[in-house]
Structures are given as structure tokens and as C-alpha cells.
Amino acid sequence: MRTILITGASGGLAQEMVKLLPDDVLILIGRDAKKLHMLYTHHDKKAIFELDIRGEAQVKQVLTQIYQEYGFVDILVNNAGYAIYDDFENFSAAQVEDMFAVNTFATMTFCRLVGKEMKAARKGHIINIVSMSGLVASAKSSVYSATKFAAIGFSNTIRLELASYGVAVTTVNPGPIATGFFDQADPDGTYLKGVKAFVLQPDVVAKRIVKAMKTKKRELNMPFALAATHKFYTLFPGMSDYLARTLFNFK
Ligand SMILES: NC(=O)c1ccc[n+]([C@@H]2O[C@H](COP(=O)([O-])OP(=O)(O)OC[C@H]3O[C@@H](n4cnc5c(N)ncnc54)[C@H](OP(=O)(O)O)[C@@H]3O)[C@@H](O)[C@H]2O)c1
């Protein structure tokens, strides 16, 4: 039986992952324990922790408790994250810092603290839920893209550092997923309408992530059309910028 820690556990993607992990011990971390208890009454082998993942001291304290009670975390899923789509000039410094704190720095903290234990045990798997926005730029996602590009760079590096200790690192880079994510990112629904053709269902994404828990695949990029866009972006950045500003500017 595996012990799997998931942050952002109340989210749409996390809910679908949990459905596919009935036999595992799940450590579910979120901002609202009551909500998590309500969502996951059906899962027997779970522990719920209410935690603000932005503070290293609190994260350390909760992880100490987790290691005392469960001994080891086999799989860490850094899933918490959010976006606000807007022109860059409209962001305050506090908004920029907060998005980095949740999307990037908290991921780094969990990877550092849990990764150290995995390295010592010479086993484990870290799965960072990042985004296509961390591979391809698009208008109005400057801050979100920056947090996710950083998370991919970080993940690619720790993968190299941990590989010889038997610890795998997977980055998951989905395009738009039909979850509550867009309530905050895109409240008027304009972007979601524009990218309708690429929208993924959360159960489909969750299935691929859960499969990767066995295969320990390096990277999951989806859907195929956006994964191909990323390849095009890498080969033809100038042309890609032109298309992103004109034909494919959905925000
Ligand atoms: N939906 C998409 O289109 C999409 C596309 C690509 C990548 N992603 C990434 O996939 C992951 C899961 O997203 P989702 O689609 O499941 O979205 P979601 O339903 O909004 O869930 C995201 C979860 O992250 C946590 N979170 C959000 N804002 C936070 C904040 N300010 N501080 C701390 N935690 C916060 C929340 O969990 P708690 O309330 O339990 O703390 C929330 O339930 C995120 O990392 C997101 O960036 C999403």
C-alpha cells in the first residue's frame, strides 16, 4: 500500500485523482479541513491536514507529524495552484508574490523536505502538476506562466539531482481543464470559450497522472494539439509569437 500526499486536495483535479486511488493511504492537504472531510467521507485510509502551504514553518511542522504517523511518503503530488489572467500592468506586487508563493515556492518547499527523505530512503516519486502555460507563453498569463515556467525549470533540475538516488520526478503539463480553476482565472468565461476545442476533462487528466505513478514517466504534456504547439514554439518562436498575438489570442 502506497502513502500519497496531495496538496490542493479540494480541487477539481485532486478529486478525480482521489477517486482512482481507493487502495492507497492518502494524505490530503488543503486550506479548509471541513471541506476536505465533506468531499472525502468515502475514502477510508485518509488523513486530512489544514495547512497554509505558503509558510515553510507550518509545512515543516505538518510534515514532521506526517512522518511520525506514517513513516514515509511514497508519492508527493504538488497540485495546489491558481491563476489570475490579466494584463501585467494590473497586477500588484503582492498578487505576484502570492501566486509565486502558492504555485512555485510551496512546490519547492515540499520537494525539498519530502525529497530529502526520499533521497535518504533511495526511493520515491515526486509529481509536480505544472501547466502548458509553463511551456508556452500566452497573453494575460504573465504571472501564472512565470510561476509555472519556474516550476518546470526547478523540476527538471531536481530530476537530475535525485535520479541516481532512485527518486523519480514527473512534471504534468496540461492545457485547460474543466475545473473550478477558471472561476478565479477567467471569471467572465471569455478564455474558456476561446479554447473550447482544447479543454480537457479532469478525470482524463487524473487517469494519466495515476498511470504515471506506476510508469514514473518524465513528463506528461496534454492535449496532443497543445503538446505539438509546444514543439512548434520551441522550433519557431517568432512565428509562434505572431500566432499567439493574433489567431490564438483567446484571453
Ligand atoms: N484547470 C486548469 O485549466 C489547469 C490547467 C493546467 C494546470 N493546472 C494546474 O492544476 C492544478 C490543479 O488545479 P485544478 O484545475 O484542480 O484547479 P482547482 O479546482 O481550482 O484546484 C486548485 C486547488 O489548489 C489550491 N489553491 C488554489 N488557490 C490557492 C491559494 N491561493 N493558496 C493555497 N492553495 C490554493 C486549492 O486547494 P485547497 O483549497 O484544498 O487548498 C484548490 O482547490 C493547479 O496547480 C493548476 O495550476 C490547471
Mean pLDDT: 95
User: How many alpha or pi helices?
Assistant: 10
CATH level 3 topology:
Rossmann fold
| Proportion of helical residues | 40-55%
Number of strands: 7
Q: Which structural category fits the helices and strands?
A: alpha/beta
Distance separating the two termini: 44 Å
Report the bound ligands by name, code or SMILES: NADP nicotinamide-adenine-dinucleotide phosphate
List keywords for this structure.
single chain; 251 residues; alpha/beta; Rossmann fold; 7-stranded parallel beta sheet; 50% helix; binds NADP nicotinamide-adenine-dinucleotide phosphate
Describe this entry's structure for a reader.
This protein is of the alpha/beta class. The protein has a single domain, classed as NAD(P)-binding Rossmann-like Domain (Rossmann fold). It has helices at about 10-20, 35-40, 55-70, 95-120, 140-165, 180-185, 190-195, 200-215, 225-235, 235-245; strands at about 5, 25-30, 45-50, 75-80, 125-130, 165-175, 220. The protein has a 7-stranded parallel β-sheet with strand order 3-2-1-4-5-6-7, with helices on both faces. The longest helix has 29 residues, at about 95-120. The mean pLDDT is about 95. The structure holds NADP nicotinamide-adenine-dinucleotide phosphate (NAP). NADP nicotinamide-adenine-dinucleotide phosphate binds near residues 8, 14, 79, 102 and 179.
